[in-house]
Structures are given as structure tokens and as C-alpha cells.
Write a structure and sequence with these properties.
By secondary structure, the chain is mostly helical. Helix content is 71%, strand content 0%. The protein has one domain. Helix 3 crosses helix 4 and helix 5 crosses helix 6. 25% of the residues are buried. It is found in: Membrane.
């Protein structure tokens, strides 16, 4: 018999290795699932309640990041929507959970509306009523209607299949707010510097400049709206939104040729609402 016959070989791991594997197994079993696959995601009502509750808690808002978004909506809107995708991966929602952007947008509306009221020659109380009308109707009420329309259309017709998650209404409203900001700067701010001494006249250059401002503002709104839905991977045929662009350009040519100044009509409509 060989001198090594009493030695027994085994291929089983050592106790320390076994304990290590079991510990890793227990650790893995206690890890939370990826955020996109959790079943305990907050409901839409809960998300809305948390969002509205933070509206008056200014110390919890990230105004610096909201200001960054506003700047990039003017110069590179694609970068803004990359952040929405990051939020979906980390917080399981596309919609903003920080109302800082909405607060800054309302501040911008107040400031630009005061400038508009000055151009219109409104008195103090008329100016206050004008500001509330612009915020409540032109921005928020119109936003609710437009967001509800796109929310219904995208969920009904643009999802690749019915098993994909619904588009959040809050995200549709965020897309409206994003798309609303650049036209606000063009039509309620920059345009005012040209109104009294140029756009308000009956010259061709007056209506050309006034209508061009509207062309840029409406085109910007459509393009940023398109970017908002195009960045969602499970939506199809989002380029249909861009069909509005040639229609807007055709209307621009028609109204300019027939001698209609959209800016003057817009200002007269505002005067009619406040007087």
C-alpha cells in the first residue's frame, strides 16, 4: 500500500468559502430591486401631493439647477431632456419632483407681464389683473389643456405596445412648461423693445418683424414639445408632432403677405381683456 493511501482528497470548498458564498447570497437577496422594476412606486396622486406640498418650501428647491434648465432650453434643449431620462432611472418618474422650475417660470411671467403692462399703458390694478390672467390662463390653464391632450394622444396612439408604462400627466405638463419658456422670452420680453418704435407701425418691416417673432416662438414651442416626447424610448412616430412646423410657416407667409401684423392683434386682444 502506498504511503499516501491514507490521505483523502476532496473538491468541496472550505468552510470559509462556503460561508462567504452564503453570505453573498443573503446580501443579494436583501438588495432592493432596480428602481424601474419596483412594485412600490408612488401613485400619481401621491406624487402630485408631494410636488404641491413643496411649492412653499423654497429652502428645499434647487433653483440653481432650474435656472440651468432655463438657459439650456434657449441654447441646447436636448441637454435638458437627458436629465429627465436620468430621473426616470433614479426616481422611477420622468416628471419633475422639484417645483423650482415652475416657481422661476411664474417669476419670469410676473416680470415680463409688468413690462407688457407698461407698454400697454395699464394702471396699477389693471396690471395686477393682467399678471394673474397671464399666469392663470395663458400659462397654467392652457398648459393643463395641452398637457391633457398630449397625455391622451401619446398613451393611446404612440406607445409601441400596451405593455409599456403610461406617460405621466405630470411629465406632459413639464413638457409644456419647458416649451412655454422660450416663446415667453421672445414674445413677452425681447419683442417689447421693438414694439413702440417699430412693430406697432403699419410698415412692411413692422409686420415682418412682428410675425417673425411669432414664427420663432411657435416653432420653438413645437420643437421642444417634440424633443420632450421623442426622448421616451417606448414612444413611436413622435415626428408627427413636427408636422405643425410647415403649417406654422405657411400661416406666417400668408398673414405677412395679406398685411396682418399678429403682434398688433395680440396686443389689442390683451387690451380688450383688461379694459
Amino acid at each position: 500500500m502506498s504511503q499516501y493511501s491514507h490521505v483523502k482528497y476532496t473538491t468541496s470548498p472550505t468552510p470559509s468559502v462556503v460561508s462567504g458564498y452564503s453570505g453573498a447570497s443573503r446580501l443579494t437577496s436583501h438588495l432592493p430591486p432596480p428602481v424601474n422594476h419596483r412594485k412600490d412606486c408612488l401613485s400619481a396622486t401621491t406624487k402630485s401631493y408631494k410636488y404641491l406640498r413643496r411649492l412653499l418650501k423654497f429652502n428645499q428647491m434647487d433653483f440653481e439647477f432650474a435656472l440651468w434648465q432655463m438657459i439650456y432650453l434657449l441654447i441646447a434643449p436636448q441637454k435638458v431632456y437627458r436629465n429627465f431620462n436620468y430621473r426616470k432611472q433614479t426616481k422611477s418618474q420622468f416628471a419633475r419632483d422639484d417645483p423650482a422650475f415652475l416657481v422661476l417660470l411664474i417669476v419670469c411671467l410676473c416680470v415680463t407681464s409688468l413690462g407688457f403692462a407698461y407698454v400697454l399703458g395699464l394702471r396699477f390694478l389693471q396690471s395686477i389683473g393682467f399678471i394673474f390672467y397671464v399666469i392663470g390662463v395663458d400659462c397654467l390653464l392652457a398648459g393643463v389643456i395641452i398637457a391633457s391632450f398630449f397625455w391622451a394622444i401619446t398613451n393611446r396612439f404612440l406607445r409601441t405596445n400596451s405593455l409599456e408604462p403610461d406617460i405621466e400627466w405630470g411629465y406632459a405638463f413639464d413638457v409644456h412648461l419647458n416649451a412655454f419658456f422660450p416663446p415667453l422670452m421672445l414674445l413677452h420680453c425681447i419683442q417689447l423693445f421693438f414694439y413702440n418704435w417699430l412693430i406697432s407701425h403699419t410698415w412692411f418691416i413692422s409686420r415682418f418683424l412682428g410675425n417673425t417673432f411669432w414664427l420663432l416662438g411657435m416653432s420653438y414651442y413645437v420643437y421642444i414639445t417634440f424633443l420632450g416626447y421623442n426622448c421616451i424610448p417606448h414612444l413611436k412616430n413622435t415626428r408627427l408632432i413636427l408636422i405643425a412646423l410647415p403649417i406654422i410657416f405657411l400661416l406666417y407667409l400668408v398673414v405677412t403677405i395679406i398685411g396682418w401684423n399678429a403682434t398688433i392683434s395680440f396686443v389689442n386682444f390683451y387690451k380688450y381683456r383688461v379694459y
